[in-house]
From TrEMBL:
Compartments where located: Cytoplasm
Protein family: Belongs to the class-III pyridoxal-phosphate-dependent aminotransferase family. ArgD subfamily.
Name this polypeptide is given: Acetylornithine aminotransferase
SUPFAM superfamilies the UniProt entry points to: PLP-dependent transferases
GO molecular function, one term: identical protein binding
Taxonomic lineage from the root: Bacteria, Pseudomonadati, Pseudomonadota, Gammaproteobacteria, Cardiobacteriales
Subunit structure of this chain's protein: Homodimer.
Requisite cofactors: pyridoxal 5'-phosphate
More about this protein: May also have succinyldiaminopimelate aminotransferase activity, thus carrying out the corresponding step in lysine biosynthesis.
BP GO terms, sorted: L-arginine biosynthetic process
Amino acid sequence: MNTKATALMNNYARLPIAFTHGEGVYLFDSAGKAYLDALAGIAVCGLGHAHPELAQTLSEQAARLWHVSNLFEIPEQASAAEKIAALSGMDKVMFCNSGAEANEAAIKLSRLHARQKGIDRPAIISFYGGFHGRTFGAMAATANPKIRRGFEPHLNDFIHLPFNDIAAVEAQRYRPDIVAVMLECLQGEGGIYPVDKDYLRRIRQLCDERGWLLICDEVQIGICRSGKWFGYQHYDIQPDIITLAKGLGNGLPVGACAARGAAAEYFQAGLHGSTFAGTPLVMSVVNKTLDIYQRDRIAEHVQTTADYLRRQLQRRLGDLPLLKEIRGQGLMIGIELQQPVPQLVEKGLNKGVIFNITAEKVIRLLPPLIFKLEHADELVEKLYQILSTC
Ligand SMILES: *Cc1c(COP(=O)(O)O)cnc(C)c1O
């Protein structure tokens, strides 16, 4: 197969490798070489590759019914919504096709919230280092100039503030046009920076006092990656809106926006939707994915594996001169280096391990959540071999 198809647009810097199949936490190329996957398709394939039960669910549904449109009832959506609501403490759920779309839904709910408050030109606080997606609303929420440049003018709803700086939020307290605060409990693309507990709790208080919606973008950390079902569950707070996507369908494209209280009722018929959102095909896999996560106690498994992996990383890599800091939560781990290392990802591929670099010098580990201790050992050893010779 031609992997360098010249008819493709150039919007990705692709590595020169095409995988032919996967099994569990490994991917294989056409030469049969195995790669330990510590990326999981960017925090997507939590249950690994070619999960037999998911493959069976998908193929059975594929033989039954794919798509009917949201003009009709889709029981698979209703049951997945029940599950997500019960796990998250939210009241209602709406499905879409990606993380960016989930955030668009949250932004539209914020606009409807503004109408309730009689605000014509509403503002939403979001944070430097955050990432919310590439569509116009989600891109406007994202402060990173690399993502915004060239696409001006941007939607101007967003006020970008420094992350984990409560004084910066307090300073906006009496601005009358603010309707929401949008954040990641652990900034993923921004370099694996967790939110401070007191800070997040204070933001929750401010939201209550001021009638702002607290929107947690759980697209990357949600669905057990942190060792709990959702990132905010580490902080004993409840957001008003959450957005989900990456891990939700184990690789089928799906997103969700869940809300509670008044915000859960803002979308009435005709106000928002998508042709493809929540097809029986995709939702059958979402239901099965959620069931397997519960049955196999994936959240607890992540805690155990992550504790072990973090300790081993610290023990084996901690003294390397190149290493600056290891941080993160659950199986969302950042290894910050003193300086960027050219071709580091390629060096990993040569050694048969897949990881990603974010924020230029942070090795980001997002392995499948079914990672076992032996996989953690293999990963640490391979990283040591690579980093000790850089
Ligand atoms: C990946 C990501 C998004 C965007 O999701 P897409 O499915 O790529 O649109 C939004 N927010 C966060 C936190 C993400 O990690």
